[in-house]
Specification:
Elements (H helix, E strand, L loop, with lengths): L5 E2 L10 E5 L10 H7 L4 E5 L16 H12 L7 E6 L1 H16 L7 E4 L17 H11 L1 H6 L3 H20 L12 E6 L7 H5 L9 E6 L10 H19 L2
Parallel strand pairs: 2-3, 2-4, 4-5, 5-6, 6-7
Antiparallel strand pairs: 1-3
Helix pairs in contact: 1-8, 2-3
Length: about 250
């Protein structure tokens, strides 16, 4: 795997299906440590490290979802020689979806399943929760969503590091619209928290419009970062979802 883009927080599971996890806005690969450790050794789970954060902090953060997906797909393409799946939370759901589209266009093997979490399906209209005019609005949105990112912003030094990434991520989200093209031929599991303040279950369920292979919706107790409290349950859903496709196609 490309050491610039992907982080493995544990040992490589060479015989397991590979799962690639895409972080939320402002997030890093490290945000997936609990889930990745919970999945091991059932899956060979890795997380994407976007430019501009942690060990890539000297790089310019991406400001375009599709452009970021093209870069990730190019790095991921050599690793599609074995069965794999994609998991994205919040902004990461859009990046994972776009990465799957780029891989399809390139002729790469399709993922076994897409797990799209904490994000409604894209429409032709701007998402009002992404239209944030200034730093104050961005910080208010992050604090409203909660999670570890919100708590970290109380530290002025961390805030200084986080703001350029958050600005870029929210610019990317604000510009994103429903893409043209045919639905994917990859099954989707759409996940959300039942008290998420910015994503209703009905919006998550609209991911069914983007696949010909079925869309399962799973609702968990919790808010936007329900993952923090439902890690074991989400891991089981991911493992079962991958296994179901494997059994269906005989892999």
């Amino acid at each position: 795997m490309d050491s610039l883009w992907f982080r493995r927080f544990g040992t490589e599971e060479s015989r397991a299906v590979r799962l690639i996890c895409f972080p939320h806005a402002g997030g890093s690969a490290a945000s997936y440590v609990p889930l990745l450790r919970c999945l091991s050794p059932r899956l060979d789970a890795l997380a994407v490290q976007y430019p501009g954060r942690q060990d890539r902090r000297r790089e310019q953060p991406a400001e375009d979802v599709a452009g970021l997906a093209r870069q990730i797909a190019a790095a991921l393409r050599p690793a599609t020689d074995r069965p794999y799946a994609l998991f994205g939370h919040s902004m990461g759901a859009l990046v994972a979806f776009e990465t799957a589209r780029v891989l399809r266009a390139s002729g790469a093997p399709a993922p076994l399943r897409l797990f799209l979490s904490g994000r409604g399906a894209p429409t032709g209209q701007p998402n009002p929760h992404d239209q944030l005019p200034d730093d104050a609005a961005i910080l208010a949105a992050v604090r409203r969503l909660g999670g570890t990112s919100a708590a970290a912003l109380a530290d002025p030094d961390l805030l200084e590091l986080a703001l350029p990434v958050l600005r870029a991520d929210y610019r990317a989200l604000a510009a994103y619209r429903r893409p043209p093209g045919e639905p994917l031929d990859t099954p989707v599991t759409a996940l959300t928290g039942d008290t998420d303040p910015v994503v209703a279950p009905a919006e998550v369920a609209r991911w069914r419009e983007f696949t010909r292979s079925g869309c399962e919706v799973r609702v968990f107790p919790g808010g936007h970062f329900y993952l923090d409290h439902c890690t074991d349950a989400v891991a089981d859903v991911v493992v079962d979802g991958v296994r179901e496709v494997q059994e269906a196609v005989g892999r």
